Fold:
Amino acid sequence: MKSSLLSFILLAFIISAQAQITSVDISCLQSQDIWSPAGTVGARNTYLTVAHNGDISFRVIWVPGSNFWRIEADADGNSSFETEAYTNTFASSPNPPDLNTGTWVDVAGCGPLSQFDGPYTQSSLTLPVTWGAINTSLLQGAVKLRWQTLSEQNNKHFIVQRSDDAVNFRDIATIVSQSVSSYDVADRVYEFIDNNPGTGRNFYRLVQVDIDDRRSFSIVVNIDNPHENVSLSLYPNPVKETVFIRGGSASRFEYSILNSVGHVIMQGNTATRSIDVSRLQSGLFILKTGSNTLKFLKN
Structure:
């Protein structure tokens, strides 16, 4: 009787320690594939499973030299895990890994990961932010991004990211947390207006940054912008340190800055639509980009 009870307790412990990682392709990873901790690499957990479709083993492992997570398969059964199934594109170090951290690229054609949870995965830990609604709306060619948090723990700020393909995101703004304590359970609402969205489909996501610089990600939302912003303007004007370009459909601008007598004194390109002019002397300047000529006053 004692032996049976001990076996039951041991079995219950093993089940409680299991994690699930699932893809959408039945030939790869499914919910019946049970993952368990299998040691550490670079002080981070490693997970191991034998896939339901046969005797192929998979593992989730941290790649120390490149600083990202990877899912590998032992296709030939020699315990070398030589086949790359998924690679995470984000150089981050959460331990354990998270389905929503970075982008898991499907290398082997298994389909997008649809589940990554369980006691030894990130979703079992205390979430730094409990997300509420996240939505977008159009405002005469601009895009308004609005999001809600239901609770925040040690949250420092959000980074707003935009993409035109839902794969390659770039930072466009930083929004400071409204939390009034290290653990804030009040509903908080944030808004950001993107005055320079691309024409067509725009994808947005939020990067939540902890006070210790650990990061988590929101879902990706998107909106179609039918407006093409042809004309350009700049602000602020007068300017003291940084001038920003508004309008246009291009994501990167090549520019020249001329003084009042027409001499080129600065040249470059910007993907952030911002130009540092703090080293310029006070006076009137001309910014040229493409066919646009814009004047600004430097204080």
Q: What stands out?
A: The first strand starts at residue 19 and ends at 23. The longest helix spans residues 2-16.
